[in-house]
Specification:
Helix content is about 45%, strand content about 25%. The protein is of the alpha+beta class and about 350 residues long. It has a five-stranded antiparallel sheet. A five-stranded mixed sheet has the order 7-9-10-12-11. It is extended, with a radius of gyration of 29 Å. The two termini are about 55 Å apart. The mean pLDDT is about 85.
């Protein structure tokens, strides 16, 4: 039976949206709010706080608050019942009681780390070609000042490095636009059979230059989806271009279109577009990370082929915007298949 004073304390604590406890000066729990009861159980009242959490940093916050009377706060990585990054706050109430609360900052901290890593990666990706171009300029101004052959060679290299920066900036702008539209569901009707045929037509010449034939396997039906045509062109151009560049060793890239009555993670009927190659493939450990920004299995080879490390990240975000799924399957030495599943239009 909860007495009136405890009910009043619980009502007070339920003003906190985060896990919160009311402790006396011996660290005995006098009350816990609803999130705390859901996390630690409903029978914590009367227990010493150390019985449910033994982290010295948290206990020190409570003791400092009791001793000095001011609010004590610290961001801590917890790994017990509460797991993740939490802003832990101890505030004295009255003469000798403390409210201890735990604000979950895990997602915020993860986003901050992601932004920090992203800025560091972009800086690194831009610094490398800029350093190369600066070195070429110094050479052209100095040792190669009167060497026409060296000038032709270095100007060509400078053009390649400038092109690399241009592709990177273009992909960064594309990624930014895709992310800004992430929660806006496309409303236009797109026929994927025609769209994929047009993409392949554009890539016929570079595929032939690489000694690769792009085959299409389809049915004599319409593959209608609700989507953003420009973004879907970008998805299939990226996937087919990657297959030609990195998986074209076997000489054939296959693009298969299918209608499915249902598919994992898709509500209702679905359209499947699978891009398969016969290249080197990837080790299983790489598959979950292939869509991460700037993740490259073979950094040197990717740079040599002109890759920015953002193509599959852009593909993933566009597919997610279309409420679809991107599936990746690969076997080392045999090739890879990237399958896009999209909800079929009614």
């Amino acid at each position: 039976m909860i007495d009136a004073s405890q009910k009043t304390l619980e009502d007070f604590l339920n003003g906190f949206s985060n896990v919160a406890f009311f402790l006396d000066n011996r660290r005995i729990i006098q009350a816990a709010n609803t999130p705390a009861q859901a996390t630690f159980g409903q029978d914590t009242t009367g227990q010493n706080f150390v019985a449910i959490m033994r982290r010295p940093e948290v206990l020190r916050l409570i003791d400092n608050c009791l001793t000095h009377g001011h609010q004590a706060q610290e961001l801590l990585a917890l790994d017990g019942v509460l797991r993740g990054d939490f802003q832990v706050t101890a505030s004295r109430v009255g003469e000798s009681e403390v409210v201890i609360s735990f604000a979950d900052q895990t997602d915020i901290r993860a986003a901050e780390r992601m932004r920090s890593d992203f800025v560091a990666n972009v800086s690194h990706e831009l610094r490398s070609p800029l350093t190369s171009i600066s070195g070429f300029i110094e050479t052209l101004q100095g040792p190669a000042k009167d060497d026409e052959q060296a000038q032709i060679r270095f100007l060509d290299l400078m053009k390649q490095e400038a092109g690399r920066m241009d592709r990177l900036i273009g992909d960064l702008l594309s990624l930014s636009k895709v992310e800004s539209d992430a929660h806006v569901l496309p409303r236009s009707s797109v026929e994927l059979g025609d769209l994929v045929t047009r993409v392949i037509a554009v890539l016929t010449q570079p595929a032939a230059k690489a000694g690769v034939v792009v085959e299409v396997k389809t049915q004599d039906v319409l593959f209608q989806v609700q989507g953003d045509e420009d973004q879907l062109i970008q998805v299939f151009r990226n996937l087919i271009e990657n297959a030609v560049k990195y998986g074209g060793d076997g000489g054939i890239v296959s693009v298969s279109l299918d209608q499915l009555p249902n598919a994992p993670g898709i509500r209702g009927k679905a359209v499947s577009v699978a891009v398969s190659d016969q290249g080197e493939g990837f080790a299983r450990r790489h598959l979950p990370r292939l869509t991460e920004r700037f993740y490259r299995v073979d950094d040197g080879r990717a740079r040599e082929k002109g890759g920015t490390g953002l193509g599959l990240a852009i593909v993933k975000h566009i597919v997610q915007r279309h409420r679809g799924r991107l599936l990746i399957d690969s076997i080392e030495g045999k090739g890879s298949t990237f399958t896009v599943l999209l909800p079929g239009a009614d």
